[in-house]
Structure prediction request, 1934 residues.
Amino acid sequence: MDNENHTTGSAEPHLGAPEDAGGVRVDTQDRMVIRFAGDSGDGMQLAGNRFTDAAAIFGNDLATLPTFPAEIRAPAGTLPGVSSFQIQIADWDILTPGGEPGVLVAMNPAALMVHLEDVREGGILLINEEAFDERNLYKAGFESNPLDDGTLAGFDVHLVPMETLTKAAVKGSGVSGRAVLRSKNFLALGLLLWMFGRETEVTARWVEKKFAKMEAVKNANLAALKAGYNYGITTESFSRQIEVRPASLPPGTYTNVNGNTALAWGLIAGSQLSGLPLFYASYPITPASDILHELARRQNFGVKTFQAEDEIAAAGVALGAAFTGALAVTGTSGPGLSLKGETISLAMTTELPMIIVDVQRGGPSTGLPTKPEQSDLFLAVWGRHGESPLPVVAASSPSDAFESAVEACRIALKYMTPVILLSDGYIATAAEPWRLPDLAGLPRFEVPFAAGPNAGDRFLPYLRNMETMARQWAVPGMPGLEHRIGGIEKEETTGNISYDPENHQLMTDIRAWKVANIANDIPEIEVDDPDGADLLVLSWGSTSSAIRAGVGNARNEGIEVAHARIRYLSPFPANMPTVLSSYKQVLIPEMNNGQLSRLVKAEFVTPVISLNKVTGVPFTAQEIAAKIMELAGR
Amino acid sequence: MDNENHTTGSAEPHLGAPEDAGGVRVDTQDRMVIRFAGDSGDGMQLAGNRFTDAAAIFGNDLATLPTFPAEIRAPAGTLPGVSSFQIQIADWDILTPGGEPGVLVAMNPAALMVHLEDVREGGILLINEEAFDERNLYKAGFESNPLDDGTLAGFDVHLVPMETLTKAAVKGSGVSGRAVLRSKNFLALGLLLWMFGRETEVTARWVEKKFAKMEAVKNANLAALKAGYNYGITTESFSRQIEVRPASLPPGTYTNVNGNTALAWGLIAGSQLSGLPLFYASYPITPASDILHELARRQNFGVKTFQAEDEIAAAGVALGAAFTGALAVTGTSGPGLSLKGETISLAMTTELPMIIVDVQRGGPSTGLPTKPEQSDLFLAVWGRHGESPLPVVAASSPSDAFESAVEACRIALKYMTPVILLSDGYIATAAEPWRLPDLAGLPRFEVPFAAGPNAGDRFLPYLRNMETMARQWAVPGMPGLEHRIGGIEKEETTGNISYDPENHQLMTDIRAWKVANIANDIPEIEVDDPDGADLLVLSWGSTSSAIRAGVGNARNEGIEVAHARIRYLSPFPANMPTVLSSYKQVLIPEMNNGQLSRLVKAEFVTPVISLNKVTGVPFTAQEIAAKIMELAGR
Amino acid sequence: MSYTRVDFQTDQEVRWCPGCGDYTILAAVQNFMAGLDIERENVVFVSGIGCAARFPYYMNTYGMHSIHGRAPAIATGVAIANPRLSVWVVGGDGDLLSIGGNHLIHALRRNVDLTILLFNNQIYGLTKGQYSPTSEPGKATKSSPAGSLDYPFNPVSLAIGAEATFVARTLDMDRNHTTSMLKAAHQHRGSSLIEIYQNCNVFNDKAFIALTGKQERRENRINLVHGEPIVFGADREKAVVWEEGRAVIVNRASVDPSRIIVHNAHAEDASQAFALSRLAHGPYGPTPLGIFRDVYRPVYDDALEDQVTRSKAARGNGDLGKLLTSLGTWTVE
Amino acid sequence: MSYTRVDFQTDQEVRWCPGCGDYTILAAVQNFMAGLDIERENVVFVSGIGCAARFPYYMNTYGMHSIHGRAPAIATGVAIANPRLSVWVVGGDGDLLSIGGNHLIHALRRNVDLTILLFNNQIYGLTKGQYSPTSEPGKATKSSPAGSLDYPFNPVSLAIGAEATFVARTLDMDRNHTTSMLKAAHQHRGSSLIEIYQNCNVFNDKAFIALTGKQERRENRINLVHGEPIVFGADREKAVVWEEGRAVIVNRASVDPSRIIVHNAHAEDASQAFALSRLAHGPYGPTPLGIFRDVYRPVYDDALEDQVTRSKAARGNGDLGKLLTSLGTWTVE
Ligand SMILES: Cc1ncc(C[n+]2csc(CCOP(=O)(O)OP(=O)(O)O)c2C)c(N)n1
Ligand SMILES: Cc1ncc(C[n+]2csc(CCOP(=O)(O)OP(=O)(O)O)c2C)c(N)n1
Ligand code: SF4
Ligand code: SF4
Ligand SMILES: [Mg+2]
Ligand SMILES: [Mg+2]
Prediction:
């Protein structure tokens, strides 16, 4: 598919400069940020996702960021009811959904109110003008109508009578009454597709499949889509089309996936690589619930899911499953992780493999359930009573969630230890193109199952593999391996209760050593440092993409700066000391008050510069670049 | 009272050298460690406590350490059933219950088996020889009888037919059957009192009061006590008496108190100083339960206690009480603290005053419930999801628990914040002489109660005192102050739910600042550094006493070494940076794997040397001194 | 002091989905409160997390929107620390029966003076539609696409099994009935639990159609009224009788009127109330509404206050100086 | 496979206080297990923390001595992950009814295939004698020197209120009865709860004297046997009859024999079992022992296994490659 066909008149591609093309200018841009905003009921997520698909299939690189109304469904038309979806598309390897939108679709006054301030100067506004009645303006808090009071000066404004157009379009589709207006998101989408020179075909195919069993709805949506597209072609007011060319992504098969889904799939991959059935126990909590939902649909993969009565039970149920030899996982968000600590401590001391997924959200307490934050790091690394060291792995992007989940499984099973896998609300819901891995190429996991008695005719549950210090996993059903484990300190090798002081010291040391030693079994951190910089920027988790982009921006400004992302936060990779000591300055941007900063200082006694942001909104590349420039004295 | 009267013959005091005194040598020692050991049923705790009282009233300085059988009551005569009580008495300001006992009372083979290895060379063994029958020897794991197989060579062994003596003594007291032998601890005690040249009078008075309503028991115990004492006087085999002179303690009235009791009293003091009723909610857990037990007896102080269904409920109930304006406290040990995290986070964000007592025990998981450890520090400081900073205060000794509790109350109420108060299993049960504070001299607390609307006729619950950043405490019952608070991020001043990014940043910053600022309202750390040393030893919690003693030992060896104890672990006192930078080396001994070490490194990016011990047994002064010597190159 | 409903409204915009049953309950509670003779400042609403749990923000009283499941514990603290307050708990079926189940049953057995409003919509609303501990077996939701395998609680049975002294059930749509339940619960000193069937029109619409549908409600609604015979049906043609320890629905005409149960909410023995609760396991057919049980038992908050008073009377107000010396002292000069 | 009791003993020294009721229960369980036809390796004991919870260490099977209160959750995981195992839960009244209350009631309603042994000594043994959720009101303990203000649970009532499918009660001292309850519970697929009155001779000695005292037990013990009339007393002179939905004790002679309840443990409706549980609130007078309720309901573990099997049959064994491409893909070359 090539997009030249869809501009009227001359359609030679051109870089940079706008050009006249039969009355319609074609702006070629290397990237563009588009935001869909409307009421929760306006179907903005759907429109955004469809646009994303069209862009992906066209070959753009892209990153998306849906934003849902917080917690309670607000009444239609109000500010808290606004739902939005942002996508950045580009002809190169972009990393974030971008900062200031170049195009805003605003379905009602509230959407305009909330999002206008973000739109970049001269940006395009596609506005559903018919929603701007007095009632809606009042609900949105406008004192006068922004469409004609000068508020929109400096923007490229397009007022579209979306409701009239939609009504006209869907007439005869069989949809009637209130339902008619439901198709207006497709109208907006059609118009946007035109604007970006995309065919409606990809979307139409999807509509046909999705609504196959709802003839009327299908027809209405298709009609609205087409009408929007045609409105773009025919309306004089549209003098610009925007071209963003396909990116040159590495060859491969791509899909577009959000982090919760990718993480769930990664767990299934862990299950297949280990040959163990996946068992997922969870209590619903935003933004982790979708992992449960995704896995609940995968029973044919042998996956069992369990919705527990609370998070403590979920952790306990997972631990019970781990005892039987399952690949046991429990998933939650911050408040739930606070609750699971005691059970995790038991899993740690019984040395059973288990994965605890924490999809971080804004804290403390209930906090900001729909916003991302990176503030559970301390809790993950140090948040249990007693000496309870654990491996902690953090995903950095939607697609990386897959790989991180696989790694968490590998470590848990090889070392017989619970592993905490951190994600966050941004990774959870944002989507990005993901080059599918070669599944056949992934190495199988060896699982330290006990095959039989390991000390003459006895079985000693705490006899260890002297390389990994993992004990053997003897699962019920195996004759001759009957044994008891528990939370009171255990005697080395036998696992019997022991109050012996020296044994407690030994077991504490072994548990610490076991985790520390994993440093030798994880990839070293790779530093991206083309120029031999003095400044290293360290990133972890979802902010990594913005940080990488910000580093790129700074380099474009001629600044030498290195970047490394840390996936393994406990233990740190073996080359951390070397890396840290190779730089004069280390900058650690985080969406918290400096948790990785403190971990690094506590481990390596090296000064770091912290860039902290706790607003529930991800860093932008600009913010990172600005800080780098500041440190570079610019 | 002077002890010279009680030695036979010449009784001039003499320092150092043993002297013949009418057949009985009187050893004068500056300190002596005595350990009572027997079966759980043998009344060793009682004997130890009575001996302690006698020593205290005599004027010795002293420190005690009871050790209970772990968890389950074991059958009589077995090793796990052994209960012991150690006391060190001294003529100077001692700090620990000491290491190797100079005197061991062993009531049965199991007691000997467990404790013999600790007794110092040449130490005195007082053995209940009649318990050394085949059955008991077998239960204790002796293959031959240690009383005559050479095991006890090198000790000063006294085999006492305690059962026969006791039976003879209590005849006619009215006690009969099995109960007769119950008095044998008093027999042992009487003998010991004689050995240390103490009168039986203090003990006899106590017996008379305690068993006033049990005539027979009273008489039996008194008779046994006297019999033991007389046995010492008359038996030829006892050729040594030991003299430990009164210590020159600072003038004042002293009592002998364990840490749980002192902590409970400190909370009552907090209640009286603030004028708020004390509310204590807890779920029983070793070694914290005795705080609940002590406070439950104090209803006439207006104290309400509540035994909750679990630790989460206990924290919740306390938080509810805090909402009503009570001085709310919840107490637990490690596993319980892990459970309370989510609720503490709510208390933090609702900015209600509350104290969470954690009497630390050996971890992780159920761990070693009856052993002390300092391994909940991370959990206290950093163990909650989201950014949840809190003040953390740690008691360092039984009597210091009182003062630390008062401080925790003061900070919680002044700053409207939950405060974590750390104690541990050693502080909880050990006792030491405590010079009673001048209660009248303690400053009253001002409590930031809201008196009425604070913004015109409105009440804004998050309007703050700009000095402390404390919000006002508006308690139900006050008209016009009705308001709602909760765990979702709150708008500054109004407390209404807010999802605004900038507000979240602001509130996060305020909460962090509020806690950090407390650094200016706590005493600076005082460094004990007579010589201007290069090495600073930093201590916190119960190990402080051993560390102070170890520092003293090292100084006696001519080593220059400074010592400072930190009570406030979050925030650190304001002069920490100055103090740290004044020394070339900083040594931090802890009963964990280096938690304070890491906190210090994370905060101050300064190297420290860690001395870690995780055996469930406190440091001895010797261990500390040895490390100091090692660092000094000796 | 005399209030109107407005006095109990706050400046916070009510943010439930349009059409949510929570609105009607809020209005009923506000109206009811306005008619009471308790000062607003002596009322405290404590909730957990969930749609229902937003409730305190809309009540111009003292309130805490706490954390998921813990409201009964926190409210217990409020009530015990200050027994002069009127303490209310609001929560959903997830909040109070799933994560908060333990605190709920313990509060009930202790008989802490709380009025607990359980908004049962048989679904997790706030987290967007997973099954709850009261959802019907086999329910297909996001977390149970192949159908839920959980067997639901009957909240009334559970509460009675947990030694509750007051248990009632009502329906969001029926404001008068809701109000009369509120009144009775409020009058009851000790714990009261009101299960309120509440429609979640977004994630579980029409769950209560058996009691709200025009025809259905006439047939299914069994009104429990103390002292009155239990008869129901479109033409009051059905009756409930005792049969070997069970409450059984029969055709009214088929039994002697004397056999029809005359409802006794004040029976000491909880068996009858329990048996009545078994008439319906979820609102899918004939379902009793009203007060199942309303008996007196000593109230925790009062009893504790009483112990404190008696202790002071017996031992005098605590003297800290004396306490500190109570273990014996010695003096160094 | 044929075992003797010794096969179920471990090398760990049993460390309860001499005279503790736990010993008899252990012996009964070991003997019972030896007589079963289950392989030792297919048995798992899960416990929480408490004296009772030491149990797994003394059973030569798979076992976990977990953390306080969480055994029902952990055991649920064991049973669901591997429905072929025989999974047992052991815990005290504190472990299973206080901190673990919620997990217990949820396991019961879900009908997970667990056999739960509740060692009820009406006290916290391990932590040295605080009152528990089953202690009698007014009990003076270390944590309630002026008398406990808690009203206790009746564990049988609570379990029935929580939709349990099998609930029984027995007594440590009566090994035969204990064994027959174990047998019945084991045969029941789904959750079974056995409340075992267990004497803690150290902190709560003689709590069950009404059922263990020579004279008392003859008067007070009410044996519930399915299909048999409920009569008891030293001379079997008492009987239990239905009276308006309540179970009432009467003089046997005073009623027509046909009125005496013939115990039906298999009644669908839980009301009768509940009513019988109300005959005694704690073992202080006439107290029923035996099986209160034993009915079938689909078992969680089986149903989940079934869903997995059906899903595989309907959709084929999951293919990860296909899953990864299921949202649509595009190819870059
Ligand atoms: C500790 C914790 N776990 C989970 C959640 C997520 N959560 C919030 S409300 C809720 C359940 C909502 O259902 P319900 O209590 O029935 O209330 P409703 O929304 O239906 O009124 C859940 C699971 C949370 N906020 N905190
Ligand atoms: C989280 C946690 N809270 C509290 C405790 C302390 N604790 C251990 S057992 C127990 C209760 C014991 O009573 P019960 O369950 O009745 O068992 P019993 O000892 O009487 O057999 C308590 C409170 C603990 N180990 N863990
Ligand atoms: S989701 Fe359901 S319960 Fe929640 S506000 Fe909307 S309609 Fe009401
Ligand atoms: S304390 Fe009680 S329950 Fe525990 S072992 Fe001893 S007698 Fe048994
Ligand atoms: Mg609900
Ligand atoms: Mg018990």
Observations:
- The radius of gyration of chain D is 22 Å.
- Chain D has two domains: 1-207+298-333, 219-291.
- Residues 300-315 of chain D form the longest helix (16 residues).
- Residues B 73; D 16-17, 20, 22, 51, 121, 125, 200-203 surround iron/sulfur cluster (ligand 4) (CB under 6 Å).
